[in-house]
């Protein structure tokens, strides 16, 4: 993919944004003393590409029926969403540090009290059915807007995901895109040991979905996978191969960072690493 | 889940607990896990089913020690309860362990049909119950579990107040021949019982005598009522009785009716919606029995729950020593 992308923002600019988002995620989690670190870092590149390149959405148009929709079914990784929404101008960045405070709307899962959030999530296994409903409703109104639903790989153990998957194929919802953040970890351990949902390619395929496997940290590959339309009449799933805790060496692939909160020293080391990575791609820090 | 858990108790409340010589125990969840592990180590018929919840259920040690007695189903609460019922039907003593919010909402139909109605003696263990998850928000709160399960026949409902009641509750559940729901929070709990009481969960127990106001409290709210009672007596010589009600079903009516006869006012206290919990159970009991007493329900009101930590939420709704003392005061003044 070319450096200056047709959709306005270059790959390099996106990579810089991803690093800045990662710093913000860590900043607000350590400020709050709580949060889902690993899964926010594994999904941030996906959110970045969606919000900055793929989706037709902005604070000014958020009340318009013909906007694209993003549903974060793996709601626990709300910090990634808050950070991206702040960057897009849905609310002032300063509000991010009220995360988890008494009376703040910025709680540990997405709520519609926060501008830019489409749906309240937090209980896993709800997002895809809601997305099916959105896609049906949009189609009913002759709107071709797309609906994106982000799922965790552990989340796929919920039967409701597969009920929705069947409905999406049955109703030929090609406006609907599911993205699985396949970081291969959940709380107790590796997803393959806790309750394996693999092989996902053939499973979703058998459910009637168009399946794409993609490197979930490669902004160019994500862009391509999310912008090239699926075959007509097929819902599409992106199996995004990711690394839980991506971007901070000592968090990558380490179980405890599911909801681990960095202490002062870990925070400093993580910010230094991300700062160095930023310098390397030529961003500010 | 949160690195910094703000204290549930004000400095005053903590000092009062210290003056009373109350021991700060461990979280009821840890007491549950330790007791269950002991029981299961002696009896291979005892099994645990988890849904990516063994860490939050403090059962990692159980899994290491008794790997053949734990079944992991992944993030699938409906499956958890269905599988537990099937295991129970083969004669296993099954503890199905999952966050109370998901266990009693997501899997409610499995509880109703496969466990309660079919009478398979599964022990449903709701962990991190009430508003233990604090700022994770309403998806993670279980303020409906008493109400939902009270409306389903054939499930005992037990919410222990301290480690001692927890120990008794796990023993009770392990011997039960019908379904049981156990409800545990995450915070360390003070002992509310002396040596005489708290050794079983089948009856409501007076943990402090008094005649002006009676606090009727359940589960992890009992301690706040006890501290408020001591505070009111110390500062104003208001005499408060405190009754701990570990079980909503079977519901031990005697001590509640006695409190209504012998005290001027009655206050129920619970970490649950005001709809369908201990307060309403007492209200209907009192009205049907013809008791006449001043009555107030302290619970989470029927509104969008305020956001914040468990301590913030308790403070906001007056489920604290200070809040309950204020409520008692106001109620007495209105007489
Ligand atoms: C219905 C439901 N059950 C359990 C949980 C608790 N929970 C929160 S995150 C999580 C693990 C999620 O793993 P995965 O879907 O792989 O997400 P990720 O690795 O991206 O964090 C669990 C069990 C929940 N939020 N909702
Ligand atoms: Mg995962």
Give descriptors for this structure.
heterodimer; A: 285 residues; alpha/beta; Rossmann fold; 5-stranded parallel beta sheet; 9 helices; 5 strands; B: 335 residues; 7-stranded mixed beta sheet; 5-stranded mixed beta sheet; 13 helices; 14 strands; 20% strand; binds thiamine diphosphate; binds magnesium ion
Walk me through this protein's architecture.
The complex is a heterodimer of chains A (285) and B (335). With 285 residues, chain A is α/β, with parallel strands linked by helices. Chain A is built from 9 helices and 5 strands. Chain A has a 5-stranded parallel β-sheet with strand order 1-2-3-5-4, sandwiched between helices. In chain A, helix 8 (219-227) links the parallel strand 4 (210-215) and strand 5 (236-241). In chain A, helix 1 (11-32) runs antiparallel to helix 2 (37-54), helix 1 runs antiparallel to helix 9 (264-281) and helix 2 (37-54) runs parallel beside helix 3 (78-88). The longest helix of chain A is centred in the N-terminal third of the chain and has 22 residues, at 11-32. By secondary structure, chain B is α/β, with parallel strands linked by helices. Chain B folds into 2 domains: 11-23 and 196-333, Rossmann fold, CATH 3.40.50.920; 26-190, Thiamin diphosphate (ThDP)-binding fold, Pyr/PP domains (Rossmann fold, 3-Layer(aba) Sandwich). Helix content of chain B is 39%, strand content 20%. Chain B has 13 helices and 14 strands. Chain B has helices spanning 11-19, 28-42, 60-65, 77-89, 100-103, 108-117, 145-150, 163-175, 222-236, 254-262, 278-289, 310-316, 321-333, and strands at residues 24-27, 46-50, 70-72, 93-99, 123-127, 156-158, 180-183, 188-190, 205-208, 213-217, 240-244, 247-249, 265-273, 294-300. In chain B, helix 2 (28-42) runs parallel beside helix 8. The longest helix of chain B has 15 residues, at 28-42. The mean pLDDT of chain B is 96. The complex binds thiamine diphosphate (TPP) and magnesium ion. Residues 152-154, 183, 185-186, 191 of chain A line the site of magnesium ion.
